[in-house]
Amino acid sequence: MLSLLSSGALALWLDAMGLIPPESQVSIPLFDAPGLVLEMDGDEEAEFLVDRYLTDLDGQGISRQRQGIWLQVGPEKLAGHQGTIPRSAASVTKTATTLVALQTWDWQRRWLTEISATGPLVDGVLQGDLLIRGGGDMLWVWSEAIAVAVVLQELGIEAVAGDLILEDQPWLNFEQDANEVGEGFIDSFDARRWTPPIERAYGRLAAGTPKPQLEIRGDIRVLGEGTEDISEDSPAQPLTEPPSRRIPLLRQHSLPLISLLKVMNVYSNNVIADALAEELGGGAEVARRAAWLAGVPEAEIQLVNGSGLGQENRISPRAAVALLSGIHRRLAAGGLTLADVLPVFGQDGGTMDERAMPKGATVKTGTLWNVSALVGAVPTRDRGLVWFALLNGGDAYTLPFRRQQDQFLRDLQAQWGTVGQPRSLTTSYPSPRFGDRDRIEVIADPAFAPNQSVGPYPPKEQP
To answer: How far from chain centre, in Å, is Cα 167?
Structure first.
């Protein structure tokens, strides 16, 4: 079988069988992100590195029976330890959520948030309510709210005489609680009410962005989804009847799905992951579909949610690598790479802060109080991309595991040489820009706001 691989005959056979996409649809070599695994006799160098890793854990009193490891290059398994046994994987679960999301939706999928009024604009004061209708955009943060307030003021709205109506549970700062979201909008719309976190968010906006002073004088009202969760003494109260009049003002287009997944994985955001998994049918359904897409037995991926919170989320090391290669192959068809949805050490922050991996390692971390997981791909000179999964368990907090994992990746590069970042692990899509005015579409009728701008939307197409 090894001679078959070396001669290229296997690739020719796969091509003849229609298992390799046309060259125009891929941007990575076939075996950078393998879709099959060949069980070889084992690689002595890789097995030595794995044994030394386990021996070092033994020396710290950590049982090797609670560890799972998988190393792979292309379609060839190099080494493993309990590689097919599912174990608690913590936030590595998010790779399953990522894969199924990419298979379900176009990576350019966007969500719309609609802003409208219920009355006329008179001398800068909106004589009615301001209505924000959520469309599922989970990346509405302070910067997005400030940008919307700036555009509303450019329409001539200086104050809202009526209420702030939240329809269909809009998000703000990964919250959907009506009180938190409503107060957050009121604060972010008016610079006189800004707190230090809002000031910091403003500081990350484009230079010269005005500071809005849009006052909302009424109360917070809730319409549609979410009203059933409101208590009688809550500041936000349900609106029993929808407004009889709606005057469209703005549409705010979200960042695309690819950016949402990147944020989710860089910061290991559990709220995003669980919300996506619920939309996809729940943890068990995500597990079933992820196993099929990754080509592993369903028993090797067992999930109860999309985030990895809880010991019940279990993935085998082999399945973890298969999930990553599945993501990579799916993104390649759109000219994207694994680095467009996972953190890259030396480039991204979040879960990469305070780590000491080789530069360019593209990974997903996972942490529970007694679980530490690291999976990904690291570039090497002699072996190309080395795909790995380290699923560690113990009886104490996980900081020692993190040090050991980072050292293991450095050992891989020391053994097989360092190399520049390959194209297959280079980010193709631009980093998310929060508060981007180009995503705000002005749709107000000129009769409502004669001074309105036509707006720069739609945005320029991305690669």
So the answer is: 25
SS3 label, residue 31: helix
CA dihedral angle for residue 93, residue 96, residue 102, residue 103, rounded to 10 degrees = -160
Domains with residue ranges and CATH for the chain: 26-108+260-421 (3.40.710.10), 112-254 (3.50.80.20)
* CA dist., res. 322 & res. 295, Å (int): 7
Residue whose token pair is 């991926």? 301
- What pLDDT is stored for residue 41 in this prediction? 65
* Residue 24: alpha-carbon gap to chain centroid: 27
Distance CA 367, CA 396 (A): 12
Output the pLDDT for position 141.
96
Report the C-alpha dihedral over residues 361, 366, 369, 372, rounded to 10 degrees. Answer: -50
Where helices occur in 345-440 by DSSP H, the ranges are 399-416
Whole-model pTM? 0.88
Cis peptide leading into residue 21 (ω within 30°): no
Tokens for 165?
A: 């109506």
> Of 398, 368, 306, which is closest to residue 93 (Cα–Cα)?
306
Q: Please, is 420 exposed, middle or buried when counting C-beta atoms within 10 Å of its C-beta (0-12, 13-18, 19+)?
A: exposed
Residues of the chain with pLDDT under 50: 1-31, 454, 456-457, 459, 462-463
Q: How far apart are CA 340 and CA 337, in angstroms?
A: 6
* Phi, then psi, of 93 in degrees rounded to 5: -50, -35
